Every structure is written in C-alpha cells, then in structure tokens.
Automatic annotation (TrEMBL):
Coiled-coil positions: none
One MF annotation (Gene Ontology) recorded for this entry: ATP binding
Protein name stated in the entry: ABC transporter ATP-binding protein
Location of the ABC transporter domain: 2-216
Superkingdom per UniProt: Bacteria
UniProt organism field: Pseudorhodoferax aquiterrae
Keywords: Amino-acid transport, ATP-binding, Cell membrane, Membrane, Nucleotide-binding, Transport
Family assignment from sequence similarity: Belongs to the ABC transporter superfamily.
Matches recorded under Pfam families: ABC_tran (PF00005)
Length: 218
C-alpha cells in the first residue's frame, strides 16, 4: 500500500529524515513511534506532498508519489489528520468535513457524509456548529472525519490522542478500532503506543529522523 524507501528530507538547512524506511501493508494499521521532534510529522507531510525528499522514494499502491502533484494525493484516497487539526474556525462542522471533497471535486459527497455520520453519529448532531465553538477533543473528531471523507484507501493520523480528555481519547480509539477489517490502511504517528497498542499490527520506531533497529536477542 504505502512504501517509504530510504527517504531523506531537509527543512531549510536541517536534515530531518535520514534514510527512513517504512511499509504500511494493505488493510493494516501501523504505528510510527517517536519522541517529539523525531520526524513523524515531517514524514506524513512528505507523503502528502508538502515536503519533497532529496533522496529516496515513496510509493502508494505501486505509484511513485514524486510524479503526483500535492493537490492530487487526496484524490488518490489518502486522508490526512494533522496534529493541530487544521480546521477552518468560521466554517461549520459539516463544511470542514466537506472541504477536501470540494477541493478534489468528489461526486460522492453525500455518500461520504452518510458514511462519516454512521461512524461518528455525534458529529451529525453538531453538523451546523462552527468549529471555533468546539472543544479540542471535538475538533479532533472533526479532523478525523475530514480525513475519512477522502481517505478511502489510506489514513495518516498525526498524534490523534494528543491533548484530548480521557473520554474523547477513548472515543477516538473506538472509532479507529472500528476501521479495522475494512479496505483502509492506517498509519498512526504517536509519541508512544499507550493509546493504540491493541490497534496496530506493527510499529516503526523513529529517532532523529532514522529508523531505530531493535537489537537481536543474545
């Protein structure tokens, strides 16, 4: 599904990713684990085309993403939930969910909304509420819903549980767990696996932009 091969990425003069390797098989959930500043967000932004590798290759379903414009990646079925949520404060919950569908010109907008409200019925009840009136946890739910709107093949979730009250954190975990067994693949970037150890099929540990290789047992 998603393959990252020896990717190097720099931001300005700082090299953030160093020969990073990662694979997310079809219909699986993988945890990308690393401390703050390890390079997790940089990798997700690179997959989405916001940053460009200086070396290495990223492929999605066999296609080299270097040839895919940034604006076209959501249309490929890749949904991205950034750590800072990235909602438009003055837009309603439903309008925020629809933004990437509008941008990609999707014709199945009503169908995707029905799917999202089936997964997250609490959002249907607040669909007309402006994003600026939501709590931080509620905004996380909307950000996840927005990613699900276009993320029909792959979801990239950046710290989905960070800064969320326990009850909403549990709810997010339930929603993500409910995606298992479907057609989606999911990459979850986290500082630790406390919230998702039971969710993921495998994990990749990153430190200072590079893979951490587990030591062999003696």
């Amino acid at each position: 599904m998603l393959t990252v091969e020896s990717v190097h990425v720099s931001i300005g003069t700082v090299q953030v990713l160093r020969s990073l390797r990662l694979a997310v098989p079809a219909q699986s959930m993988v945890g990308l684990i690393g401390r703050n500043g390890a390079g997790k967000t940089t990798l997700l932004r690179t997959v989405m085309g916001h940053l460009t590798p200086s070396q290495g290759r990223i492929t999605f379903e066999g296609q080299d993403l270097a040839s895919v414009p940034r604006h076209a990646r959501a249309a490929m079925g890749i949904g991205y939930m950034p750590e800072d949520r990235g909602l438009v404060p003055e837009l309603s919950v439903e309008e925020n969910i629809l933004v990437p569908l509008w941008a990609t010109g999707a014709r199945n907008q009503r169908e995707r909304l029905e799917f999202i409200y089936g997964v997250l019925p609490e959002l249907a009840q607040m669909r007309e509420r402006r994003a600026l009136l939501l709590s931080g946890g509620q905004q996380k739910l909307v950000a996840l819903a927005r990613a699900l709107g276009v993320g029909t093949r792959l979801l990239l979730l950046d710290e989905p549980f960070e800064g969320v009250a326990p009850a909403l954190s549990m709810r997010l975990g339930e929603v993500i767990a409910g995606l298992r067994g479907g057609s989606l693949s999911v990459l979850i970037a986290q500082s630790d696996l406390n919230h998702s150890r039971k969710l993921v099929d495998g994990e990749v540990v990153i430190e200072r932009g590079a893979n951490v290789v587990a030591e062999a047992a003696a």
